[in-house]
Amino acid sequence: MSEFWATLIGAAVGVIAGAFIQYLVQYYVDRRTQRDQRAALKKEMQCNLHLISELQAEAGRLRNAVNGDALTSYFGFFNYEKGLFAQAGALLANGMLYRWYSIEQLKKLQAVSYAMNINTSNFINQSITQRRDAATKGELNKVEMVQFVNFIESELQNNKYLLEEFIAII
Question: Is the pTM of this model over 0.70?
Answer without folding.
Answer: yes
